[in-house]
Write a structure and sequence with these properties.
It is found in: Secreted. Pfam families: Pectate_lyase_4. 12% of the residues lie in helices and 33% in strands. It is mostly beta strands. Strand 2, helix 3 and strand 3 form a beta-alpha-beta unit. The longest helix has 17 residues.
């Protein structure tokens, strides 16, 4: 049984009523009724890349990063290459790590072992941070990427970060988060605010790819755009690709997007307590080739209702924002989960080339590849 379902509080009854109302509202809106869903299965997908994007992504010798797809590769600024060209260093203690990631000079840092830093890692521009093997873990403190550009974080475990985000990306561009693992604890006793987000992307951040990660045992996982008062700042930014991630035993936000554009493909979802993909406040999502197993009430939701566990509003009624937008691309397998698209969006095709795993293979591929220890470092 889902651990957070084991206890039903008075507030939980009210929240359950929210879901019951949405459930009956959605019965006639199952995924197989959406005429805009493309039922074909692709291997290579040719997006609508502009000449500028193509020039930056493919026309600069030596700048393509193997394994990178999506907005962190194809964008108007240029591909994300991290600290390429710098002399690599290996860090084995927390103080070394805190110091090594700072500053904007190009740098490649290998993390060897499990570390418990005394504060958050403040990662500067032009940084590649790579964990060695399956044991590269940061415990109790998170990573902040603030006012930075061109950052790669791969094969890192970030665990049990209390009261703050495990990874926070603020006002930063060209970031690739790949093959990382994000772990907390998920139960009614702990509640949704003991931990903050696992990966939050805010303050006009842009051109980001989140791939092959393992998110698990957490309430509020990945929020994009976090404040109504910053709507004008965020709008036109927050272009993010999420692909081949494994989301398991979670509460909400897989991701929850506001004000931006997210391409969400070939992810594996297992057991969300509430909705998984949530597009609200005029946000646009393109959802394709994803697989849902286990128990998730709502796979994709564009309704502006924000339940109390997902809202800073302390009222048990939750909060309500403007609806978002969604499009369904290549075939998804939503299992028994409902799909609630109140507004079909204009984001119908990704502006880049990418490889799409047939949905029938997504569970096997993601289980085998997401998280730590699955890349050569």
């Amino acid at each position: 049984m889902h651990p957070a379902r084991s206890i039903l509080t008075a507030a939980g009854v009210i929240h359950a009523l929210h879901l019951i109302l949405v459930h009956f509202r959605l019965k006639s809106k199952r995924s197989d009724t959406f005429p805009n869903e493309d039922r074909s299965e692709y291997v290579k997908v040719q997006g609508s890349r502009t000449a500028s994007n193509a020039r930056h992504a493919r026309g600069l010798p030596g700048l393509h990063t193997p394994g990178l797809e999506g907005f962190a590769l194809d964008n108007p600024i240029g591909p994300t290459i991290g600290g390429r060209g710098a002399n690599p260093i290996t860090v084995t203690n927390a103080d070394e790590l805190l110091s090594a990631v700072q500053g904007d000079a190009p740098k490649i840092i290998y993390l060897d072992g499990e570390l418990q830093p005394s504060g958050r890692l403040r990662v500067g521009s032009h940084t590649t941070l790579l964990g060695k093997g399956k044991g590269a873990n940061i415990i109790g403190e998170g990573i902040s990427i603030v006012n930075a550009t061109n950052v790669i974080a791969r094969n890192i475990g970030i665990r049990f970060v209390e009261g703050d985000d495990a990874m926070a990306i603020h006002n930063s561009t060209r970031v690739w988060v790949d093959h990382c693992e994000f772990e907390s604890q998920f139960s009614v006793e702990i509640g949704p605010d003991f931990y903050d987000g696992q990966l939050d992307i805010v303050r006009a951040s842009d051109w980001i790819t989140v791939s092959n990660n393992y998110f698990h045992d957490h309430w509020k996982v990945s929020l994009i755009g976090n404040s109504d008062i910053l709507r004008d700042v965020d709008f036109g930014h927050l272009h993010i690709t999420y692909h081949h991630n494994y989301w398991r035993n979670l509460g909400t936000r897989g991701p929850a997007g506001r004000f931006g554009h997210q391409h969400i493909y070939n992810n594996l979802y297992e057991d969300y307590l509430y909705q998984a993909i949530h597009s609200r406040s005029d946000n646009q999502v393109l959802v394709e080739g994803n697989k849902f197993i286990g128990n998730t009430p709502i796979a994709v939701d564009t309704y502006g209702l924000v339940i109390p566990e997902d809202s800073p509003n302390t009222c048990v009624c939750g909060d309500e924002e403007l609806d978002g937008f969604a499009n369904l691309g290549a075939k998804n397998d939503f299992g028994d989960s409902l799909v609630n698209i109140t507004q079909v969006g204009s984001f119908k095709k990704a502006p880049y080339k990418y490889t799409l795993t047939p949905v029938k293979n997504v569970e096997k591929v993601v289980r085998a590849n997401a998280g730590l220890g699955n890349i050569k470092v």
